[in-house]
Amino acid sequence: MSTVMATTAIKGFFADLKRNRLAYYYTLPAFLVMGIVILYPFLYNIVISFSNMSLTHFRDWHFVGLRQYGRVFADPLFYATFGKTLAWTIINVFFHVVIGVGLALILNRPLRGRAIFRTLLILPWAVPQYITALTWRGMFHYRYGEVNLVLIKLFGLPPIEWLSTPLGAFGACLITNIWLGFPFMMVIALGGLQSIPHELYEAAEVDGAGRFQQLKNITLPLLKPVMIPAISLGIIWTFNNFNVVWLVSNGGQPADSTHILVSYVYKSVFNYYRYGYGAALSMVIFFILLLISVNFIKRTKGTKGVY
Amino acid sequence: MVGSYLHKDPWWMTTLIYVFLIVFTIATIYPIIVVINVSLRPGNMLHTTSLSLIPKNATLEAYRTLFLHKPFLRWLFNSTIVSGMVTILGVSLASTAGYAFSRFRFRGHDFGMIVLITTQMFPVTMLLVPLFIMLISLHLYDTFLGLVIAYSATVLPFCIWQMKGYYDTISVSLEEAARIDGASHFGAFYQIVLPLAAPALVITALFSFMGAWSEYLVAAVILNDKTLYTLPLGLKQFQSNFDTEWGLYAAGAVIVCIPVVALFLVLSRWLISGLTLGSVKG
Fold first, then answer.
1. pTM value?
2. B41 to chain A nearest CA, in Å?
3. CB contact at 8 A, B106 and A28
4. Distance (Å) from the alpha carbon of A1 to chain B's nearest alpha carbon
């Protein structure tokens, strides 16, 4: 019975291979490269996550079942870091979207010199992330950093200990990442706004709808289908944004208090050589993110009937 | 407040918008000004509490040191080679794979698209150790080829999605007409569709290039030989020494940014259409 099903499945596959031969030619090279660099390591990582691989057991590792996963969930630091990662993601994406959409709304109006503003406001996206992070780290220096100098000299405020306190370092990472992330949302929103037909506003005008009503009933609902995929990507990228956290806080300083999950794993893998543990924690991070994303996409699609 | 542009704004509203835009734009480009400023400071004035936009006794000393006394040209050369190869590989693989996903309903089509998105959720730490072990056994550790393959794979998922979305907006009837005129399937793709997809190709090239030009972590794991260092690895060395080499870091950062920022500015018009068209209609 099952062999019959298997043979029909295989026959079907070969029939499809013949019919869509070209499609396989086109996709094969890309998937080959991704198979080597992404799929194989992914499977290998699953294997390691069930082992005791570490610096002392690098070649002579053996399977230890679910022990590494048990360790992950028994560690109170895991829950604290997870909470911080959630806060990190929500705050970042919130500001990216609010600033990005807000600027797009302003720049979509007939405004003299808007091309210049648009160009200048895209710049943070163009700067390589590691340079952004390293530069902001310099700018957060307590005595010579420009952030504190501006606070003191321009606003008469006391300087803030950005990099030497846990809260300050986390804030520094947030500011850096918000700075580099809003242009992406702005560009997407600008594209979305340009695709909204002008007649809708004219019709609304005839019906006597005010500006606020037009924004609420036309602009935002029609912007939503464009923004949802961008926000999903934003959540995924921010959740795992290693560069900014690692480089701004210089590896989680002060005293490993500035970590999100991905930098926390990096530390345990590359500084403490706990390969098995790191692999298990990586798997857990992946599944958490998968759950969050699927949930987000499902929910936002569920409200599609509104417009 | 905003949304429709049928009304003409009252003068105070326009003023308010301009004030906001100008303040926000200054705040946005301020860090870039800071880097340029630091790169122009003379060596004994790296630590200053002055906020002037152009430093006193501005000098190009840091740039001179960078090019003459540091292996900066070497890093620049390495990064250019790696980024160039990743761009070629990324564009050719993503343009073909994206086309297949747009035009064919083959087995594994939907699954493939989901796999592409899912790869974006892998934490980078998950791939680093296995990749490291694998590249050693393939004798690709400490080679550009290993780095190029790794980078290409990481930029491909997003680029394929991107290309697929754009192809979806191009009507199939054009290819069908070409087929009737006797063009092969590949000919129709290569001669008809590909030129029409130029905006998306440009964006794919830009992202592939940037992905390689700006990447730090994978390079740090794969490259050990200092003569193979790419720009991010080299610049990170300067930065870790805040006291003496901060100026060198800044000068290097300015030079690294120039090509990408120039590309971005030239392509910013296409960025909006190339990036969103797919998601609007797809």
1. 0.87
2. 14
3. no
4. 23
